[in-house]
From TrEMBL:
Organism (species): Protaetiibacter larvae
Transmembrane segments: none
Annotated protein name in UniProt: Serine hydrolase
Species classification: Bacteria, Bacillati, Actinomycetota, Actinomycetes, Micrococcales
SUPFAM superfamilies linked: beta-lactamase/transpeptidase-like
GO BP: any one term: beta-lactam antibiotic catabolic process
Domain Beta-lactamase class A catalytic: residue ranges: 51-273
Amino acid sequence: MVDAPALPERRARAHQARVPRHRAEQAEPRFSGAFSALGGLAYGGAQVSASVIDLDSDERVVSIDDRIVLPTASVGKILLLIEVSARMSDQRAPALEVLDKTSRDAVGDSGLWRHLQARTLPVADLATLVGATSDNLATNVLLREVGLDAVRERTEGLGLLRTALLDLVRDARGPDDAPQLSVGSTSELAWLFAALARGQVVDALTSSRVLGWLSLNTDLSMVASAFGVDPLSHRGVDHGLQLVNKTGSDAGVRSEAGILRGPRRGVAYAVSVQFNDGSIAARLRVLDALRTVGLDLLEYVH
């Protein structure tokens, strides 16, 4: 169990000035804050994993238990988006093909479509909703259209052995259902985003389309909370930064993978934490650690 500090202690720590690590003192930032923060979570009983790849040198600059498989919640929806984009590229799923939502697709939590009056939307719009708001209803409709087996086949074809979308989205998981929506290793997820950045996932068009959907993501509550970009509008370059990311949240799970480019260089990153979500203090401690990872990423690219 994560030994979470009391909320007043957390507030006091949050208001403490962060001591800058000047490049004159340390030529290359090496993520000491991230190692310390994630190590603190692990010491408190959480499972943590992180991987960071320099997009210019292809060096893996951070590797923290990056081969272990952890739940990644909605991060696995990126695998569905890749399959949908690939089908659009070879015109097996035309962008304007209209799909209906049905009662069997219905699910709660994240997303907008269940709050909208429209009963049908084009494939491209559904993928946009998944990228922007991790829309659960749109996810289930797309999965019904392309099939979970096709997503698995595509995932394996990409060489991903520890990362998978296991199931459709459910309000409750029974004994016959997959225990998690998705799982993954941060090593593979960082590699996947690096490959997307280089246009190497299926082909350049497929990769670019997926990145376009994900560039609309409005969830900047984890690692990306450190980057200072507008959650509702960050497709362009802002103070030299450009971000594309996908997050996943579930009870006791926080996961994020993405690409961050800055004036000095770019990185592909992935971080996952599985923890005892028994109190708000425990959850906030995890979010603090993820933000610390983000601060180190920001220092590395800026």
